[in-house]
Design goal:
The complex is a heterodimer of chains A (about 140) and B (about 150). With about 140 residues, chain A is an alpha+beta fold. In chain A, about 25% of the residues lie in helices and about 35% in strands. Chain A is elongated. In chain B, about 20% of the residues lie in helices and about 35% in strands. In chain B, strand 4 (about 120-130) and strand 5 (about 135-145) form a beta hairpin. Chain B is elongated. The chains are: A alpha+beta (about 140), B alpha+beta (about 150). The interface of A and B includes residues 63, 77 and 81 of A.
Chain lengths: ~140, ~150
């Protein structure tokens, strides 16, 4: 089931999705990205700089938003523009479930060339973790 | 000591060539928990119209950090990395990166601006193939929190 440009109108909501974030996710992302900042894996250091606990990399959260968009579009190469502001940290406790990211989106505008502008919302618990999150996606 | 505002507008030397590999793309896709076969299976990627496995949309940050990391490490800039948080990120794509691409990243400091006790540093990093084809521009805003 692939989304097509024709069937969409401004205001259409994308189906929401949730993604888990565990300590293991962050350790793997440290290795894959090369970003070993202590606040992403060391609870002692994270708390010493005033954070409630270890927090996810902003770019890990953005990657989940990217996955949300590419899964919806049905094409992993469909993004033309993709920008976010990191507005609150995703706090990841040391337990079996970790944190959950909830992604939702709305078609804000249809552009020429089969492109659409999508506004994204990303939440973790009560916190809105991304703001000004927007992408231009090219559809078939 | 703070960030030296005279660095605004400065373009840094391009990074050494970076070869995008299937193994690194698969490792990155595993780390973000995305099972999409176009990140792992060359046949699936070709069936989707790509020359080889492609990289997830945020993968270019791995390449961009090679260049922007050198900016942040420049001792003359005077940034205190322990006080830095990532404020914003934006990608403008010409196409997805794919395995076999050999690219360089070149960072420019596009702005330095003080907001209260914080300093916002924006960098724009162009990722191009060694033949000069534009693939992606990654724009980052780093926020240095002022010392209390």
């Amino acid at each position: 089931m692939t989304v097509t440009y024709q069937e969409l109108t401004a205001g259409t909501e994308l189906p929401s999705a949730t993604y888990p974030v565990t300590r293991l996710s962050l350790v793997k992302y440290c290795g894959a990205s090369g970003d070993f900042n202590l606040i992403h894996w060391n609870e002692r250091i994270a708390k010493s700089v005033g954070l409630p606990n270890v927090i996810a990399h902003g770019m890990f959260t953005m990657a989940q938003a990217g996955r949300y968009l590419t899964d919806w579009a049905g094409d992993a190469g469909a993004l033309v523009e993709f920008g976010v502001r990191f507005s609150a940290p995703v706090v990841v406790p040391d337990d079996d479930s970790g944190a959950v990211l909830e992604l939702s989106g709305t078609i804000e505008e249809k552009l020429d060339g089969n492109r659409v502008v999508i506004g994204l919302t990303a939440r973790s618990g009560e916190a809105k973790v991304l703001t000004r999150a927007r992408a231009v996606v090219r559809l078939s | 000591m703070g960030i030296d505002p005279s660095y605004a507008g400065r373009t840094f030397p391009a990074s050494e060539p970076y070869e995008v590999s299937r193994v690194k793309i698969a490792e990155f896709a595993d780390a973000i928990g995305d099972p999409n076969p176009v990140y792992r299976d060359p046949d699936a990627a070709r069936a989707a119209g790509y020359p080889d496995v492609i990289a997830p949309p945020t993968f270019p940050i791995v390449v961009a950090m090679a260049a922007s990391g050198a900016v942040v490490a420049d001792p003359g800039l005077g940034i205190n990395y322990a006080m830095v948080v990532h404020g914003e990120e934006r990608f403008d794509y010409s196409r997805p990166l794919h395995a076999g691409d050999v690219v360089t990243a070149q960072a420019t400091i596009s702005g330095i601006r003080a907001v209260g006790a914080m300093t916002m540093l924006t960098t724009s990093t162009e990722i191009r193939t060694v033949d000069g084809e534009h693939v992606c521009t990654a724009s980052s805003t780093l926020v240095e929190r002022g010392a209390a």
